[in-house]
Amino acid sequence: MSFINKFGKTTVASSILAASVLGTTHVSFASGSGEGNQGQQGQNEDYMAIGNTKNPKNVIFMVGDGMGPAYNSAYRYYADNPNTKELDQTAFDKYLKGTNRTNPNDPKENVTDSAAGGTAFATGYKTYNGAISVDNNKKPLKSVLEKAKELGKSTGIVTTAEVTDATPAVYAAHVDDRDKKDEIAQQFYNDKINGQHKADVILGGGSKYFGKENGNLTDKFQKDGYDYVTNKDELANSQSDQVLGLFSEKNMPLQIDAPQSNPLLVDMENSALSKLEKNDKGFFLMVEGASIDKSGHPNDITGVMSEMGGFEKAFQNAIDYSNKHKDTLVVATADHSTGGLSIAKGKDYVWNPEAIHKMKHSGSYMTKQIADGKDPEKVINDGYGFEFPSKQMDKVKDAAKELKEAQDKAKSEDDEKVAAATTKLQDAIQKPINDESHTGWTTYGHTGEDVNTYAHGPSENKFAGNNDNTDSAKNIFDFFNNDVTSNQNQQ
């Protein structure tokens, strides 16, 4: 399969990265159990005013999409205080529990995409790449979010991607192909549990799938009592316990590039927590740093570090919440790694994050600006924090011309030549920062190494050691099956 077909639809606006891994309709055999039976039984003495401290009542499950171990290590260098001798730890390091194996159950591919990876840790089942919480026979698999809703808990989905993207979708939808985003949005509204919508809080991008071309779903949610918000201020002023927040037409902008009116991942997480915590029966919240992966696909180290920073803030915020609410478990992991990131390339034993700190915009942002017709030299000078080589500027200009020609000849918005020309332009834009920082990459796709798992709160040790990615869901099913919540409110 060619790079263009495999890694994305190719409008300049929607797939400037030429890198969203599209699902296929492979058939494979599912394994694992959707609801495990190895959970701990709570004891009466564990229930206090702050709730059950042995078996979690609340779960915050965090996904750093594409966040392989090299990303965590690179971010440690990036976030380090250069004025101290020792390499400082990040917020993640203290809570490292183990690793997850990420392989899918796919007949042709043994490296996962986000759909199969997400299905594994949402349902406890392996499946084929492209599947959204369906098994090899394309039959629905219950997610931990759906289990939480069955138990009367509140539920939330927070992401920097489209809320219909693979990772958020696996928690509240069931389709055989991740590209069926209109259908996923429809299921978000139409599919109910005990007469209630599956997710009480839905925050992220993807407004195009909720508008008039797909049944005016925003209006329907509002009629059912949801606040509908489109910017940071509206989110902050939301009064309803249920909210649909769509802050961009497609994926949300990267943190380094985003306008002030956009909420950050931590802002969306805080809003969700403030609403979900009102339920005495507890909650399940999924929080995804989606654009770590979306920056890794086009080898955009500036975007990667920007999004790792945003995810770390959200992770620390969740840890702080858990410390104040002792019946809340926080788990953070990744579905896979992306791009084959290496910390240092070439003969020198050096990685230079200071060059990345100087950047004013991501490579993806600059690519889109130039693709939209902006002057390449101005865009580069505005986006780079150090001198851009003149010979490389000539290559950027040549690549911009090639892209313009491909755009003019394109007969559809997913034209392969446009995608190839866009990738060539972005590579030309990013070569100086990758060279200056000594950052290496091996692929525009995913890689198959194990990923780190971090956990804090009741039953955190269930995530210790080397586990299969399905074990995350099995553990959470156990917690919820054995949960006997306190009659007292959280303090």
* Average pLDDT figure: 90
- Terminal residue distance: 55 Å
Q: Total strand count, please?
A: 18
Largest sheet: 10 strands, mixed
Low-confidence stretches: 1-52, 486-491
Number of helices: 17
Radius of gyration: 22 Å
Helical content band: 25-40%
Estimate the strand proportion: 5-15%
Structural class: alpha/beta
Strand order across the largest sheet = 9-10-8-5-11-3-12-17-4-18
Global outline: globular
Give your account of this protein's structure.
- Helix 3 packs parallel to helix 17 (about 470-480) and helix 15 runs antiparallel to helix 16 (about 415-435).
- With about 500 residues, this protein is α/β, with parallel strands linked by helices.
- The longest helix has 24 residues, at about 300-325.
- Strands 9-10-8-5-11-3-12-17-4-18 form a ten-stranded mixed beta sheet, with helices on both faces. Strands 1-2 form a two-stranded antiparallel ribbon. A two-stranded antiparallel sheet has the order 6-7.
- The termini are far apart.
- The chain contains 17 helices and 18 strands.
- A hairpin with a 2-residue loop joins strand 1 (about 45-50) and strand 2.
- It has helices at about 5, 70-80, 115-125, 145-150, 165-170, 180-190, 215-225, 230-235, 265-275, 290-295, 300-325, 355, 365-370, 375-385, 390-410, 415-435, 470-480; strands at about 45-50, 50, 60-65, 95-100, 155-160, 190-195, 195, 200-205, 225-230, 245, 285-290, 330-335, 335-340, 340-345, 440, 445, 450-455, 465-470.
